[in-house]
User: What shape does this take?
Amino acid sequence: MAAEAPAIDPIHQFNIERILPLHIGGIDASYTNASLFMTIILLAVTALMVLGTSGHHIVPTRVQAAAEMAYEFVASTVRDTVGQEGMRFFPFVFSLFMFVLFSNLIGLIPGAYTVTSQIVVTFAFAALVIGLVIAYGFYKNGLHFLHLFVPSGVPKLLLPFIMLIEVISFISRPISLSVRLFANMLAGHITLKVFGAFVGMLLGAGAFAWLSPLPLLGIVALSALELLVAFLQAYVFAILTCVYLNDALHPGH
Amino acid sequence: MADNHGAAPDPHASAAMHATTQAHGGAEHGGAFPPFDSTHYSSQLIWLVITFGLLYWLMSKVALPRVARILDDRQSKISGDLEAAKKAQADAEAAQAAHEKTLADARVKAQALGQEAHAQAAAEMDAKRKTLEADLAAKLAAADAQIAATKAKAMANVEGIARDTAAAIVQQITGKPADPQKIATALSSIVKG
Assistant: This one.
């Protein structure tokens, strides 16, 4: 927004631009800035988890210690939430957590693109999780999986209503899961952008220019908050995935 | 901000989805709210599947087994080292016990040796003392005998002297030679008395 008037355009940062247009069978598969940052996330996580552990040190290096910390953090989350038999989903939950976490964190770098600020990405993850829960739930428990919607110890008269509520809550899971992450990222980045624009506007406002450090301080505080949110949302995503997978493993309430 | 949402430059896009977004994007200049702009959904999903698939493959096949092995190795190394340390400690304790036993044995042996030497020395001393005492007693007896002999001899001499002296005294006093028989009787009564 150099040539234009310094209007606040906090949405601009979410625009997707094609870097390498590509169409396969009429479907747009262009390599965009979002794809670029997905690649960066992949490379960053790989650097941490694959290159960082290539030394096999008994006494870990810093990078290896970080990789081990990530491993044990997610492993204990899965073990505590789903139990030992849930460890078969550990690679999935771990990949999900790392992808979302790195997307959130890399997105905080000024100028970087936040992959998880796209509803299609978060919804794809949520759909993947719920799809996995349904598929594994039926595979593991057969029709017994439907007991998920029939809580035990409920009066017969209330059962249809309870079942209706349970079904609705199950259906709303992918929506809440995806919207929570998407909205958090979107709102945080818009707020940061708005505050940043305030600084610029105040600097050009003559007599009020001395006020411009205030929104700058706001950005500093907000960045700290966003750092927390970035980690927290990745954690929430991972732990809710674990909770839903627990339903697939143990459908009875 | 002429046109960067990219819907316009590909009019040959055949999908119906594109047609709707084109209409939508054309209506408002600047494009739809990007996260809800379905133009880029397909490319995002495709690249998400590619990158996340690769990530999942790398994590499940390479990274996570490797970290698990590292943690396992460390656990076994720690427990192995602890085991070795425990063993070493037990060995050290055994060595100390053996050492103390050797020391005690040596002390007992030294004590016995000392006692033996002491007894031997005492016995030797005793023997020496006994021979010395016997020697001394013999010498004493010899000396006593000599003294007695000398005394007897001296006494015999004394008798002779006394007899001669008595005879001389009697002759001096009486003027005539004394009767040796009477002198002898008198002397013997004196010696006896």
Q: What stands out?
A: The first helix of chain A runs from residue 33 to 51. Residues 129 and 148 of chain A are 16 Å apart (CA to CA). The mean pLDDT of chain A is 88.
